Q: What sequence folds into this?
């Protein structure tokens, strides 16, 4: 399980693990966990000659794309570098909004605030990319395994195939927000009568 969460003892696994458990308890599912549920290629050894991808290359690859997950999707909007996402888990639906960024160090980072029925939590997930002869290698930071993200000759099971042009987020987000708002309002209304009764008759 620690491998899926990107936990490394040398980099302070206890605080990150505690934060992860706390978010799950609140119904806010970290994106790294969502991505760990989606199948990817087996771990590989990156060739020494593979170079770090540039920010421009990463921007062109991810801009205005939807990243499909097993139980959700994230949208990387080109204009304004806005990142929006939604996910469904046993704890219920969640949604996120924030920004995405790329660097000349080969990194793509997705940062946002995830909202659930009972809480909101910030989350940041980054990926490093290298390329050689058209094959792109990817790993989740800080302690994920390298795997082939896209083969030079595209394969049916390439993780790259989960990047699509269709926007699977824009229409879904308002629905999830409405459901969560309705749940919060219903919870507030259910508490108010008891609070008013206590104010009138006192707490026994």
A:
């Amino acid at each position: 399980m620690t491998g899926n969460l990107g936990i490394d003892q040398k980099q302070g696994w206890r605080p990150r693990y505690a934060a992860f458990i706390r978010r799950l308890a609140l119904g806010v599912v970290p994106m790294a966990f969502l991505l760990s549920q989606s199948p990817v290629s087996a771990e590989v050894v990156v060739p020494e000659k593979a170079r770090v991808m540039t920010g421009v290359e990463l921007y062109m690859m991810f801009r205005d794309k939807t990243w499909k997950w097993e139980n959700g999707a994230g949208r990387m909007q080109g204009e304004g570098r806005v990142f929006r996402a939604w996910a469904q888990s046993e704890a219920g639906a969640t949604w996120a909004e924030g920004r995405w960024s790329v660097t000349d160090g080969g990194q793509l980072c997705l940062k946002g605030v995830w909202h659930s029925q009972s809480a909101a939590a910030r989350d940041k997930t980054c990926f490093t990319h290298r390329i050689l002869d058209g094959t792109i290698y990817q790993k989740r930071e800080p302690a994920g395994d390298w795997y082939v993200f896209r083969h030079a000759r595209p394969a049916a099971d390439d993780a790259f195939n989960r990047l699509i042009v269709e926007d699977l987020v824009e229409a879904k987000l308002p629905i999830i927000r409405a459901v969560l708002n309705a749940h919060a309002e219903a919870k507030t209304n259910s508490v108010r009568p008891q609070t008013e009764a206590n104010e009138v008759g006192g707490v026994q």
Summary: Residues 135 and 152 are 4 Å apart (CA to CA). The chain has four helices and ten strands. The first helix runs from residue 13 to 25.
